[in-house]
Amino acid sequence: MNRKNLGxxxxxxxxLLLPATVLATTRDIAELQTAPLTLxxxxxxxxxxxxxxxxxxxxxRRPFNLSFVNIERHPNLGPWPGQEGEQNRYVDFLIGNNxxxxxxxxxxxxxxxxxxxxxxxxxxxxxxxxxxxxxQNSDSIGTSSFADGEQLTGVDLRFALGYxxxxxxxxxGGIGVFGRGDEVEDGSxxxxxxxxxSSQDLDESGVEIDFGLRRFTGESKSWNARLLLGFxxxxxxxxxxxxDDTGAVTSRFVVTNYDISDLYAQISGAYNRRYLDDRGxxxxxxxxxxxxxxxxxxxxxxxDDGIVITPTLELLGQDPVTENELFASAETIFLRGWTQIxxxxxxxxxxxxxxxxxDSAGIIVNESIDDSRIGLAxxxxxxxxxxxxxxxxxARARADLLDESRETTFDTASTGTDFTQTxxxxxxxxETVLNNMVFDLAWLFGGDPPPGGATVASRQTIxxxxxxxxxxxGW
Length: 475
Known about the structure:
By secondary structure, this protein is mainly beta. The chain has a single domain (3-474), classed as Porin (Beta Barrel). Helices cover 7% and strands 64% of the residues. It is built from four helices and 17 strands. It has a 17-stranded antiparallel β-sheet that branches. It is elongated and about 80 Å long. The termini are far apart.
């Protein structure tokens, strides 16, 4: 079967199955959200599963610590006054594809971060990332022509600053904007009989704003709080068109037409305590996260013959898809001789619910989802200096326990899934410490956990694509 006939068969099948999309409206909204473009943690943080930090991590998650960031990386979870060091300018480059495993064609992000010199009590930084992949194919045979392609672009920008209010308190905040477009097209045309054209277009954009503060009490204790707010828009348009022999569109079938508003909010607080003689630290953190995803349009699916637009799936009412997560963690790092030993335990409780009422070609259907997830993660590892501390070996093991329940309910039917899973992941890395320069290389076994979820089981394979490198310069 040639490409044109195959495309028409697929198009016809999708038209016949249009009413079935009613069964997935609420679930589609819950699962449509995708990850941001940038790597949301440094290589050293990924190696240690978030326990160890570098200036990039402080820039992303705790900008109130920007006055203290230092590539010397003291054996503490969070920098303290007096740890500024000599280097106060930083350029950080991240190389690796693990931040974009959800995109087609294995596209990778080019990303860099600059943290400027401290200006008295003020410190600041900026980060930018760019993603692009444009593939277009075409061929022709006689009077027939065929074309398909994909255009993928993305931009992610962040600016953050920290301000030292006094010797006991620091403030900080940041703003980030991102946008991504992913369009997949396929079509064929014959000058004698006509043809078809299909497109799936996903566009995402959003803004994130955060603010935090940290207060030091005594020489060995501190606490901090952070508020994160975000909003955005996700649009998915999946349609197919029939063309006559002149190339004019005779009919259009919109399979999916979603315009979703996204809203995020998170608040967290942490308590830090340093061990005696600055030989380590412990941190306890708790927080809550809330997210909402709501449809802004009612015409979810329809047909257009050029004269009449006929709805095939229309939204009548909804309760937004909401996700609520409560999380807590305890982390520690301490020295035994020259060896840094770190460990962590994290617990998250997540609930996702929402409902829609739709009209599917005259049939009123109610659908609701109610999911719950419990995730427990245990982390242990070490960082060992080698060769006069010019190299450091980092090794980490992580174990996850995930208990999840998923339920979808309709007017006269329901489906449910309950499962419990244990997984493990491992990481080995090398850190090279030169004059005002640090290189981090991570070799990761298994996958990163999604928010509140468990790692992907690695079994007996090693994915060499999971090699990630960063370079940090200070002067």
